[in-house]
Write a structure and sequence with these properties.
The complex is a heterodimer. Chain A is 42% helix and 13% strand. Chain A is of the alpha+beta class. In chain A, the strands form 4 sheets. Chain A has a 4-stranded antiparallel β-sheet with strand order 8-5-6-10. A two-stranded antiparallel sheet of chain A has the order 1-2. Chain A has a two-stranded antiparallel ribbon with strand order 3-4. In chain B, 75% of the residues lie in helices and 8% in strands. In chain B, α1 runs antiparallel to α2. Chain B: This is Prefoldin subunit 6.
Chain lengths: 381, 130
């Protein structure tokens, strides 16, 4: 690995400087140590005599002969303007302490010198270009193995918006609805108003869903069918009576008696005339006609008569009647019902199977995101 | 004084003035930082000394005389008193050191702010020039 020669030189220089400074300090401390040693030697001999003859310094340039008395008394400078009177022996003890501190300093400096010397050795190895046998092994460390503080930050990936169906975005595919009809529909005010009505109806359903979820505990479900899904008990009920059943289906329902008990009650639907055959007999007075014409029979039929007024849609399990507020308020989950009902039942049921989804958590989730209704989505398109 | 990066000919006089002001501020702050650093060093050495004195006082025999140098006079002190005084001084010095540290941190922040404003003005000036 070729390191930049300049940089290596600078590194060496820095190392040398550091070593120089450390050695300078070392010398300084060594000097202090010798001083203390000399002092200790002096103190040992000082109390031997009552007084010593010395040359006393007199100003900066002169000396004069004199005597050193009170040979055992020492005034020690403890540091920071503090002094203490001690004997020679105590003085020696103090010196010992100080020498210990000095020795420690010297040791520390010795360590730094050693460190820097080793560093400079290593950096000399760096300079060694000619050594082909030494191969530098570099390994890339993936982000996950690094400490969190050193990891490269991965910016948060924005969640993709829920993928709308390809048909929504891809204009090249042929539209399901014929353009002419589509235009006609959108231009038709009555149709649009009908769609608005249906939207309102959906919202009402939602509200009812909310209420029924709250009421769920108090209800007696009509039908209990144990399904394989363990975390939610599905309760299914017929919201009104079965008029025509194939034998097979009735057998099916009977067969299920092991795990299910199907009890159904007739809903007293007073305002709404029951379907198909009983319809014609329902009109007994002119008032009934008015009632009949004003109330929509199926979802595609507006309040004002718009399409064919037949009972054909009654057999369609996909379409819920608008005012199915049965006495048994098993209106829960009508949206789910519509979907489950889409699994075609060959039974000519006047009405649809309602599925009551009972979750273990009996808390209402009113803020659950409803899927956009097809009417709304078709309008937005 | 304004650095080698700006083409002086292209810079507006007013911008120059602003830059000058900012640079003066920077220098002031830098000086203060230096002062504070020196003070810290002094305080540090004082703290060291005082800790040594404290240790020595511990080692002393109780009957020995302790003196404090106040001016030209050595005033005799009680050993216990001396120990207390030294401890208090140690505390005071440590507090001073901490205060100086926070001061330095503040000054550095100010310095950074000024440097940022200088770079902003420079960027503006070069943008205008172009």
């Amino acid at each position: 690995m070729n390191y930049n020669a300049e940089h290596v030189k600078r590194l060496e220089l820095a190392h040398k400087q550091a070593i120089l400074e450390a050695t300078k300090q070392l010398k300084h401390w060594e000097g202090i140590k010798t001083d203390y040693n000399n002092l200790a030697a002096k103190l040992k001999t000082l109390p031997d005599k009552m007084s010593h003859d010395i040359m006393v310094p007199y100003g900066p340039l002169a000396f004069s002969p004199g005597k050193l008395i009170h040979t055992n008394e020492l005034l020690v400078h403890l540091g920071d303007s503090w002094f203490a009177e001690v004997t020679c022996k105590q003085g020696l003890k103090i010196i010992d302490h100080r020498l210990a501190a000095v020795d420690k300093n010297i040791e520390d400096i010795g360590f730094t010198v050693k460190n820097f010397k080793k560093k400079s050795e290593f950096s000399q190895h760096l300079n060694n270009d000619g050594d082909k046998s030494a191969v530098e092994i570099k390994e890339e460390v993936s982000n996950q193995y690094l400490h969190p503080s050193r990891r490269k930050r991965i910016s948060r990936v924005k969640e993709k918006p829920p993928v709308r169906s390809q048909e929504d975005r891809n204009p090249t595919k042929p539209p399901i609805v014929d353009e002419a009809i589509k235009e006609k529909c959108f231009n038709d005010g009555a149709f649009m108003s009908r769609l608005d009505e249906l939207e309102k109806f959906e919202e009402e359903e939602d509200r009812l869903l909310l209420e029924s979820n709250l009421l769920e505990d108090n209800e007696n479900p009509d039908v209990r069918i144990q399904t394989s899904t363990s975390d939610s008990k599905k309760r299914v009920s017929w919201s009104s009576k079965v008029i025509q059943g194939h034998d097979a289906d009735s057998d099916d329902s009977d067969d299920v008696t092991n795990t299910t008990t199907i009890k159904f009650t007739h809903t007293n639907v007073t305002s709404h005339p029951s379907n198909s055959k009983q319809q014609t007999s329902g009109i007994t007075s002119p008032a009934d006609i008015g009632r009949k014409t004003s109330e929509p029979k199926s979802i595609l039929k507006p309040a004002t008569s718009f399409g064919p007024k037949s009972g054909s849609n009654d057999l369609n399990p996909l379409l819920p009647g608008p005012s199915r507020k049965s006495n048994i308020t098993t209106v829960s989950n009508k949206i789910g019902d519509r979907r489950t009902a889409e699994r075609k039942f060959d039974v000519a049921i006047s009405d649809y199977v309602q599925e009551h989804k009972e979750t273990i958590k009996q808390s209402v989730v009113p803020t659950k995101k409803r899927p956009v209704s097809k009417f709304k989505s078709s309008r937005i398109k | 004084k304004l650095g080698p990066y700006i083409n002086m000919g292209a810079v507006d006089a007013q911008v120059r003035l602003e830059l000058q002001k900012e640079f003066d501020e920077i220098q002031k702050v830098q000086k203060e930082i230096q002062k504070s650093a020196e003070l810290q060093k002094k305080l540090d050495s004082q703290l060291n000394q005082n800790t040594v004195v404290k240790d020595e006082l511990e080692f002393l025999e109780p009957e020995s005389n302790v003196y404090k140098l106040t001016g030209p006079v050595l005033v005799k002190q009680d050993l216990g008193e001396a120990k207390g005084t030294v401890s208090k001084r140690i505390e005071y010095i440590s507090a001073e050191i901490k205060r100086q540290e926070t001061l330095v941190a503040d000054l550095e922040k100010q310095l950074n702010k000024h440097k940022e404003s200088v770079s902003k003005i420079q960027a503006k000036a070069t943008a205008v020039a172009h």
